[in-house]
Amino acid sequence: MNATAFITGATSGFGEEIARTLSREGYKIIALARRKDRLEKLASELGNTHIIVADVRDKEAIFEGVKNLPKEFQDIEVLVNNAGLALGLDGIVEADVEDLETMVDTNIKGLLYSTKAVLPIMKARKSGYVFNIGSTAGAWPYPGSHVYGASKAFVKQFSRNMRNDLRGLGIRVTEIAPGLCKTEFSEVRFKGDVERANKVYEGVAAIKPQDIAQILLNCLNMPKHVNINIVEAMATAQTWAGLHIEKDKF
Ligand code: NDP
Ligand code: 8X3
Fold it and tell me: Which residue spans traverse the membrane (predicted)?
């Protein structure tokens, strides 16, 4: 039996699929998210799963959740920092300041809490693997990405910087930075406007959550002396837009 994999944001999209994939590989699963009904459904599907119903922004809940893990789930080998979201696509002038705060609190501070809670376990075990889910938005700007993209740029640089501090501890760190992928991401971004969300993916063979789970598994299965620092993966149909020039309107 393999050790335990802890996945944040396991009720949908990448996180849910990564939980399925790692469970198939024999890992015990700790699944964390806010939606209890979905976590319970996933746990009954997978078996050997401990659920934590919590908001990653709730520092106390995250640290308590890790401190109070049942004994058989304390051997965390893999942490997947996946919970995250974008809210809105308005420009920075129009954007709702509370949406901006929610992205910072979830994508940056939430990721910090689960990382800080789990790293001591990995250090004690002298073994571990942290996957941080970034985004192409962390490297490539687009209109309306302001805080979301910046929060994912944090994930990129934090992932690299962590590696320096973890040297000699047998802990690997990989940032997986996906591009367009059909999950509930756009439904969340557009606050339940399913029609608008579906339009984002219309006519595009977008990345599937299973593709990201496969990439993660490929990294995990590399020999322990190999650390894949970053994987950036786009749909073949997606490319960079190029630089925009706004012409003077005389
Ligand atoms: P989904 O909306 O399908 O899934 C998001 C998951 O995160 C859900 O399980 C949700 O669970 C959880 N989550 C969100 N906020 C919180 C919170 N405050 N506390 C706990 N859990 C939370 O989107 P994706 O699967 O696409 O997104 C997963 C990650 O991938 C995110 O970090 C996203 O930024 C990133 N990403 C997505 C891309 C895409 O195109 N889809 C591309 C690049 C990166 P619940 O609501 O139950 O709490
Ligand atoms: C999600 C991909 O392009 O919508 O991170 O920012 S994108």
Answer: none
Does the beta carbon of 85 sit less than 6 angstroms from any atom of ligand 1? yes
Structure confidence by residue, pLDDT tens digits, 47-57: 999 999 999 99
In a domain, 242, yes or no: no
Is 42 within 8 Å of 49 (Cβ atoms)?
yes
Give the mutation target among 12, 82, 85, 136 for probing the ligand 2 site: most ligand atoms within 8 A of CB: 136
Q: Which atom of ligand 2 is nearest to the CA of 180?
A: 2
CATH number at residue 24: 3.40.50.720
Residue 12: CB within 6 Å of ligand 1? yes
Task: State which residues of the chain have pLDDT below 50.
Answer: none
Domain encompassing residue 75: 4-85+100-180+208-233
Find all residues with CB under 8 Å of 185, minimum gap 6, and list them.
Answer: 13, 85, 86
Active-site residues, by number, are: 148
**CB-neighbour burial class of residue 124 (10 A; exposed 0-12, middle 13-18, buried 19+):** exposed
Q: What is the residue type of 26? A: G
Record the pTM: 0.98
